[in-house]
Design brief:
The complex is a heterodimer of chains A (335) and B (290). By secondary structure, chain A is mostly helical. In chain A, 77% of the residues lie in helices and 0% in strands. The radius of gyration of chain A is 21 Å and the shape is globular. With 290 residues, chain B is an all-alpha fold. Chain B is globular, with a radius of gyration of 19 Å. The chains are: A mainly alpha (335), B mainly alpha (290). At the A-B interface, α6, α12 and α14 of A face α4, α9 and α11 of B.
Chain lengths: 335, 290
């Protein structure tokens, strides 16, 4: 009897130990942040672009939570980015709510509400039905905005938005240095929240749903509730990314709801590697830098290149850039 | 009162023509998705390819509109075979996500290629005289081209219905959609069947693409913009169901046209609202299996 109890005790200890060791900070994890600071000092005149890259990282990170960890394939993630972007945009244009940080919180809350409601209905479905439902949600929001273009500004958008100084002290400079650090700080906060989530038992449950949903049902896990919670959190984060997009660009148009925006973030995440947190960093940075360079040369060429990259990634590198690096690393350490 | 009736007839007529376009273009997608469960987001790219073939055949090579449609459909059908054999086939057992990514990638490449060769400006086709202007049906006149679409659509529906329900191959396809393993066990070569239906579906999509030029003009973004509509028709109709695809095409075609006539500003709002409601109530579509 006591042996059995002891055995259960050790098993439980080992499980706890496993979760804790996964959660422990590893030194290569400092790398992206060091690189971000290095970029800040190396390319002081490209900081406006740098902020956009960081926003893309955050958007991709929110998608990673539902696509990479929970395995929800969505074609409408731009819906939440757009809701966040318009929360801040409309707040500033119509209500005079120009304080940036409370704006972010408002965007997170409103996007989370939209995510919760749509997720509650949509996450019962899978496959093509789910793809179409998520896509339809994003397009409906866009069409609703277009219908009331007196409020949303339609496809001309809400230009020339102005926001208060950050924390009441930092003024925005021409080169976007303040914005870069502001976005970086918000990204760090968001990242540590997401990191906590994916290494928690809840994160393990999401991975379980992705790997084998039937088994999760069989062991009595509340699958639908887990998915809705993850979807709501991801929506809130995407909303924050959208809000930062509006604040840093000082405008917003209905194109934030475009299918292109949903597809783009998915491509970034796939390029980097899904279900591994840092995939969002690698993918978004590589994608944005390539896009910045090639789309200036020729947008047509760039579109072809992205298509080719996707095809090659699916055929040869299903786990993204980080997956490839990992493979190379293992091969080296073996030989 | 008479005016309302006039508008209702116009809506019905335009909606029907639009529905025929949707049906012709989507039916292949529905059958291939039903057979293999493959999410093919490059279907719109095949339709667009057909459209550009028709443009080149009529404008540069001097073929008539109807022969061009036939040549474009057949050649796109043939071109699609190697794609199925060498690319799609690798991913039949892969996840939805991987299929989505591969086919979106192909669609992007197709869009870029056609932008390079044809430019981003909308293209049109020269129509024969009998397809221009209006046709008088006794009580009122209708645009000839839309009448032609309705007649052609009805003809294709009959042919497809006969092929699906009354021929040996049609029976095999239905068997494979219902239960692939069982169909294979009784000796049906599902792989070959799939290649055949894939080519046929792509050819029909190309026909739809050719027919669409006159309705909407043809730009490279056709591959993505209308893809959403084709997917909606398939999802709402139910995978692999001819009847479902037809019903979905009719419902969406007529709803969308009504919305555009009566509430032009609302744009696509209605069609997506219909999709949400239908899929929330019947997740597998009208005639899909749960």
């Amino acid at each position: 009897m006591t042996e059995k109890v002891a055995a259960a005790q050790t098993a439980r200890d080992r499980a706890a130990e496993f979760l804790i060791s996964r959660h422990r900070f590893r030194w290569p994890e400092a790398l992206p942040w060091l690189l971000a600071f290095a970029a800040f000092f190396l390319f002081p005149d490209r900081m406006t672009f740098g902020s956009q890259v960081l926003i893309a990282v955050m958007f991709a990170l929110s998608l990673d939570l539902i696509l990479g960890y929970a395995g929800i394939v969505t074609l409408g993630h731009a819906a939440f980015f757009g809701v966040g972007a318009y929360t801040v945009g409309l707040g500033a244009a119509k209500l005079g709510w120009t304080e940036p940080i409370s704006g972010l919180l408002a965007a997170a809350i409103i996007a989370a509400i939209v995510g919760f409601i749509s997720g509650w209905f949509l996450l019962r479905y899978r496959g093509l039905t789910l793809l179409m439902l998520t896509l339809a949600t994003a397009i409906m929001l866009q069409e609703a905005g277009n219908l009331r273009s007196d409020i949303s500004g339609g496809y001309d958008g809400l230009p020339g938005l102005e926001f208060k100084r950050l924390l009441g002290m930092f003024d925005y400079d021409l080169y976007g240095h303040v914005y870069f650090l502001y976005v970086l700080a918000v990204l760090a906060v968001v990242f540590f929240i997401v990191r906590r989530i994916v290494y928690s038992p809840f994160g393990q449950a999401l991975t379980g749903i992705r790997e084998n949903v039937r088994r999760m049902h069989a062991i009595g896990a509340p699958v639908h509730r887990h998915l809705v919670i993850a979807y709501t959190i991801a929506a809130a984060i995407a909303g924050v990314a959208g809000a930062l997009f509006t604040q840093t660009n000082a405008y917003v148009t209905l194109t934030v709801f475009d299918f292109d925006n949903s597809a783009r973030v998915m491509v970034m995440l796939i390029l980097g590697g899904t279900g591994r947190l840092y995939g969002a960093f690698a993918g978004a940075v590589v994608y944005m830098v390539l896009e910045d360079y090639f789309s200036k040369l020729s947008p047509t060429f760039w579109q072809f290149g992205i298509g080719l990259l996707l095809v090659l990634a699916v055929l040869f590198a299903r786990r993204g850039i980080l997956g490839l690096l990992e493979q190379a690393w293992h091969r080296r350490s073996k030989s | 009162m008479q005016k309302i009736a006039q508008i209702a007839v116009s809506i019905l007529f335009d909606g029907l023509a639009y529905a025929m376009f949707l049906f012709i273009t989507s039916v292949g997608l529905s059958v291939t998705m039903g057979l293999m469960g493959f999410v093919n987001l490059a279907h719109g790219a095949f339709a667009m390819t057909g459209g550009y073939f028709v443009v080149s055949l009529t404008r540069s090579l001097g073929f008539g509109f109807i022969p061009s449609l036939v040549i474009a459909s057949v050649s796109v059908g043939l071109i699609s075979i190697p794609f199925e054999r060498y690319l799609y086939r690798r991913l039949y057992k892969a996840t939805d996500l991987e299929q989505v990514l591969l086919t979106i990638g192909l669609a992007f490449m197709a869009i870029a290629t056609f932008t390079y060769f044809y430019g981003p400006i909308p293209k049109s086709v020269p129509l024969p005289a009998w397809l221009q202007g209006d046709i008088n049906l006794g009580f009122r006149t209708f645009p000839s081209y839309r009448a032609f679409l309705i007649v052609l659509g009805a003809g294709l529906i009959s042919v497809l219905w006969y092929a699906f329900e009354r021929t040996n191959i049609g029976a095999k396809i239905r068997a494979a959609v219902d239960n692939r393993r069982m169909a294979e066990s009784v000796g049906i070569n599902v792989d070959r069947l799939f290649t055949l239906t894939f080519a046929l579906g792509s050819g029909l999509a190309a026909l739809g693409g050719g027919l669409a030029i006159q309705l909407f003009g043809l730009t490279p973004s056709f591959a993505v913009i209308y893809l959403v509509l084709f997917l909606i028709v398939v999802a709402v109709g139910g995978l692999g169901s001819l009847k479902g695809t037809l019903l979905a095409a009719l419902v969406l075609g007529i709803f969308d046209t009504t919305g555009k006539y009566l509430l032009a500003d609302a744009g696509g709002f209605f069609i997506y609202a219909v999709v949400l409601v239908v899929l929330l109530i019947k997740p597998a579509g009208f005639y899909g299996r749960e």
